């Protein structure tokens, strides 16, 4: 009898220990994100960043949203989950998925030639007869990188910039090499306008409204009409910022850099990318645009990520990183006064977005640090 009681007591104490270890491990797993958020907050204070919002989403769990700072460095209001930021080149990920949606509806084809998109603007460079929608969205047009961004920033009209591109000789034939562009994305804006619609209307009808991204918009007017929007802040010295004006230039090339959204909208976007709105954004669409197309080796050395990225490619509107065997689909954005990052792992069913109303390089290390900590936590759990 005494031995039986001792055995029972030992079993109960062992069970209690197992339970306690489980609780502690679960608590530690939950706290890693709060620790990361504290780290980001300290970095933002160190670099005097006016405001930001970020979300980490793991499928099956509640989204974790963190906000910091104000919409304006001097005055303004507190950043909330509904504060709208410019997404800059993160817009290209939306353009890729809008294109995929229109292909799914048979309203466009990935093989749609430049002569269909721009019927009255000839592209005379060698091999440009083969330039197609897939090469535009896939950053493999062959033109020198960032061709005529200077004309965008000098406030040249959409048509004039596209005509200048049409006269340019490429470095390689379409589809052969990675050549990042902004101006060429204006071909889609021009195409929609010629067909009595607009990029903004197409985005609202095909993605924003069906997904319930209620504060998302396209264009300068959309940003300024938001109930709460983050004002741009431009560097004037090391870690010093002044509030700037919202520039119109890249908004004229909206498929490249014209989308605005809050962190609430971007949480929905992550959920859609991870397959939770299949009638709006099918798995086939997402898989297709995040399939590797051209290698981007220089990305393996990118600031803040060194030593993490084993290989890098560009798909259709998305960068694709290999991080220790994990596929991470990513894109960053930068226009005057704003930075943005989006990344998700389809295999791990997790995603992350950060939006910032300053041109701080802090976002590079902050995003990389998130994935370092996540992988460390995930590896420890296994």
Q: Low-confidence segments, ≥5 residues, pLDDT <50?
A: 5-28
Query: Helices and strands: which structural class?
Result: alpha+beta
Shape: globular
CATH architecture of the largest domain: 3-Layer(aba) Sandwich
- What is the C-alpha radius of gyration, as a whole number of Å? 23 Å
Short recap of the structure:
The chain has 382 residues and is an alpha+beta fold.
Properties at a glance:
382 residues; alpha+beta; Beta-lactamase; 2 domains; 8-stranded antiparallel β-sheet; 13 strands; 18% strand; globular
Care to describe what's here?
- This protein has 382 residues and is an alpha+beta fold.
- The protein has 2 domains: 32-89 and 198-381, Beta-lactamase (3-Layer(aba) Sandwich); 102-193, no CATH class.
- It is 40% helix and 18% strand.
- It is built from 13 helices and 13 strands.
- It has helices at residues 2-46, 91-104, 114-117, 133-137, 149-153, 158-166, 186-194, 199-211, 220-224, 254-257, 263-273, 283-289, 362-381; strands at 51-58, 64-69, 84-86, 217-218, 233-237, 240-243, 259-262, 294-295, 311-314, 319-323, 326-335, 338-345, 350-356.
- The strands form 3 sheets. An 8-stranded antiparallel β-sheet has the order 2-1-13-12-11-10-9-8, sandwiched between helices. Strands 3-7-4 form a 3-stranded antiparallel β-sheet. Strands 5-6 form a two-stranded antiparallel sheet.
- A hairpin with a 2-residue loop joins strand 5 and strand 6.
- Helix 1 runs antiparallel to helix 13 and helix 2 crosses helix 12.
- The chain is globular.
- 45% of the residues are buried.
- Residues 5-28 have low confidence and may be disordered.
- This is Beta-lactamase.
- Residues 1-30 form the signal peptide.
- Keywords: Signal.
């Amino acid at each position: 009898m005494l031995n039986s009681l001792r055995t029972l007591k030992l079993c109960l104490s062992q069970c209690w220990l197992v339970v306690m270890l489980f609780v502690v491990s679960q608590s530690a797993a939950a706290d890693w994100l709060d620790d990361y958020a504290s780290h980001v907050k300290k970095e933002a204070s160190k670099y005097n960043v006016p405001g930001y919002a970020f979300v980490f989403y793991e499928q099956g769990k509640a989204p974790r949203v963190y906000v910091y700072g104000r919409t304006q460095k001097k005055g303004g209001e507190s950043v909330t989950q509904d504060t709208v930021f410019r997404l800059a080149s993160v817009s290209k990920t939306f353009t890729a998925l809008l294109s995929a949606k229109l292909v799914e509806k048979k309203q466009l084809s990935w093989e749609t030639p430049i002569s269909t998109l721009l019927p009255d603007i000839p592209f005379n460079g060698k091999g440009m007869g083969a330039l197609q929608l897939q090469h535009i969205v896939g950053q493999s047009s062959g033109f020198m990188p960032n061709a005529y961004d200077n004309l965008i920033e000098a406030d040249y009209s959409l048509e004039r910039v596209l005509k200048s591109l049409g006269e340019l000789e490429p470095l390689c034939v379409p589809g052969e090499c990675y050549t990042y562009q902004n101006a060429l994305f204006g071909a889609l804006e021009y195409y929609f306008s010629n067909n009595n619609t607009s990029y903004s209307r197409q985005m609202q009808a095909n993605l924003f409204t069906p997904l319930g991204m209620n504060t998302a918009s396209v264009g300068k007017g959309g940003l300024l009409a938001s109930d709460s929007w983050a004002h741009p802040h431009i560097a004037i010295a090391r870690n010093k910022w002044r509030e700037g004006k919202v520039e119109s230039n890249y908004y004229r090339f909206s498929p490249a850099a014209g989308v605005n959204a809050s962190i609430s909208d971007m949480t929905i976007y992550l959920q859609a990318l991870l397959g939770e709105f299949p009638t709006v954004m099918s798995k086939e669409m997402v898989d297709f645009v995040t399939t590797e197309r051209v290698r981007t080796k220089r990305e393996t050395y990118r600031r803040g990520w060194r030593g993490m990225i084993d290989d890098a490619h560009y798909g259709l509107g998305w960068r694709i990183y290999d991080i220790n065997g994990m596929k991470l689909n990513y894109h960053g954005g930068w226009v005057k006064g704003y930075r943005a990052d989006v990344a998700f792992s389809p295999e791990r069913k997790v995603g992350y977005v950060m939006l910032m109303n300053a041109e701080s390089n802090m976002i590079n290390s902050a995003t990389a640090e998130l994935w370092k900590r996540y992988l460390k936590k995930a590896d420890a759990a296994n």
